[in-house]
Amino acid sequence: MKSCKKWLLLFGGVLLAGLVAIAALVIYVDPFFQYHKPLSFFPYKVDNQLSQNPGMARRLDYDSVLLGSSMTASFDTDWFTEVMGLQTVKLSYNGAFPKDEANIMDIIFDTKGSSVKKIFMAVDQGAFSADTEATKYPIPEYLYDKNLFNNVQYLFNKDVLLNYIFKPLIDPTERTDWTQLYKPWWTDQYYTKANVLMYYVPAEEAEQEMAEDAFVSGIRANLDVNILPYVEAHPETEFVFWYPPYSILYWNDVMRQKELDAVIRELEYMTEQLLAYDNVRVFCFQNNREIVCNLNNYADYTHYHGDICRYIVESFNNGDNELTWENYEEVLSDLRELASSYDYEAIYDNWYD
């Protein structure tokens, strides 16, 4: 009996020591940055937006933030330093809904407060029709709240231990370049018209024209709940919103689905609401013909090359493609004209031009 009790105590002690060691290792390396800044010598792997963004928002040093969907994926944050002298962190979410932006802005402003100089946010107009409480993917809420003592799922997580601590140590290629977080896998050879057309499937044609105000209620709700409260609460921060340059094939889908009036009205309404604030700037790249009409700038019908991202950063600095009260109607009218009059059939005449 005594021998059995002794072995049980020994087993319990070893088990407890093992659990303590695992928790200590996770806290020490902290690959999701819940407890401290990244260790300077550790080869961190950063590829999990849902789990790693909240910790980076709390622990990294920055004065500006790049937010949005995969439309921000090919941005190098060093460009913001070179062009504007800003220390910028990328905290994007693939397919981001407005609620995703609100969740991360809660952490950003709660942690950094008035030290945030600029928020750069890519606005995917289609995402603003989402429910105001919907996120694109379920989030691990225990990583987003302020309670560091409910992180049991983080501290004792096989995936964290194997893929985010041991694997980067064993395989140096797993190490992430902090300036190119969430960079897509496409290499330059994928950015060709032929590649885009090979995988592009046109939308089915709709029978009826969509109502002009079809998207307005969703935009109004998401602006009021998930975006404008942060603009209003932080007048010291400049918010830079921008409409990404989807390729002309995106507008082919809009035309086929008979949504042009609704999409243009969507952009008009959003622009009017945003420009009402002194600490907001808005940029539109969707009618930039040199970009959107050249499919060699794209890896698919919406995702553009890093060179375009660099151009966007430079535009933020020099004011190119900026919307103002004086020009926004003219710019969006030009976008309407481009989308409605473009010869979409001619795109297929030569796949290699």
Question: How does this model look, in words?
Answer:
The protein is of the alpha/beta class and 353 residues long. It has one domain (2-349): 3-Layer(aba) Sandwich (Rossmann fold), CATH 3.40.50. It is 46% helix and 7% strand. A 6-stranded mixed beta sheet has the order 2-1-3-4-5-6, with helices on both faces. Helix 3 links the parallel strand 1 (64-67) and strand 2 (88-90). The longest helix is centred in the first third of the chain and has 28 residues, at 2-29. The chain starts with a helix and ends in a 12-residue tail after the last helix.
Roughly what percent helix? 40-55%
Strand percentage lies at: 5-15%
Q: List the helices and strands in order.
A: HHEHEHEHHHHHEHHEHHEH
- Main beta sheet strand tally, sense and closure: 6 strands, mixed
CATH architecture label: 3-Layer(aba) Sandwich
Number of domains: 1
Backbone CA Rg: 23 Å
Q: What multimeric state do the chains show?
A: single chain
- Structural class comes to alpha/beta
How many strands? Answer: 6
Give the strand line-up of the largest sheet: 2-1-3-4-5-6
Mean pLDDT: 93
Q: Give start-end ranges of low-pLDDT stretches.
A: none
Give the CATH level 1 class: Alpha Beta
- CATH third-level topology: Rossmann fold
Structure described in brief:
With 353 residues, the protein is an alpha/beta fold. It is built from 14 helices and 6 strands. Helix 9 packs parallel to helix 11 and helix 11 runs antiparallel to helix 14.
